[in-house]
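Structure ticket #2291
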Amino acid sequence: MPALRYLRVPLQNRVDPYGRLFRTPARGTLMGNRGGALHNEAREIVRPWKTRRWIACVLEFKGRHRTVMTPRRYTELFFLDEAVAFAAGHRPCAECRRERFNAFKAAWSRGPVLADAIDLELDRHRKQRTWRASPESLPDGAFVELDRSPWLLWNGALLLWTPAAYTQRRDRPKGGAVTVLTPRPIVDCFRRGYQPQIHPSAFLLDSLGELA
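Resolution: structure written out below.
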């Protein structure tokens, strides 16, 4: 009798640009959380968020080790890159990504601003979920929806998001309006100079586009 092989099913803790939690073997370049435990004792997702503090963190910090989805501990979430985390409504962590958080705060407001105030505003915009704008008015780093798929605006083009990489490149549309996934206040931060960290596959597509 042949030996049985059991496939390990990925946990439902990956995040897409719409903010949805899904399963994929792809890990991504950033971790984050939504303020607490979203899972039960069986490591199943039972709620989409816990508090309005949605953050994006580094994968490793000061040698700390965690067992993913430990019961009664916060749920570790994973993003392809920072642009995806922003589209989903997360902001940089003020502890493990302090430099990025300070840069984000500076782009958010010229005066002093507390993390709680940012979280409150982002929570309000996450409930709106999408908005409309002309493609020409949007900065690099923003996500839009075309053909029911999320595309990243990058270097004058659009890049198709997939769980593991950006896989297609197309010209940015001209005229009209598109559905924007990235919350409006975060897009404003991009306009003021904050540059989100992008997955290396985007730069590969850039080079292929130049060669073509």
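Closing remark: Residues 14-211 form one domain.
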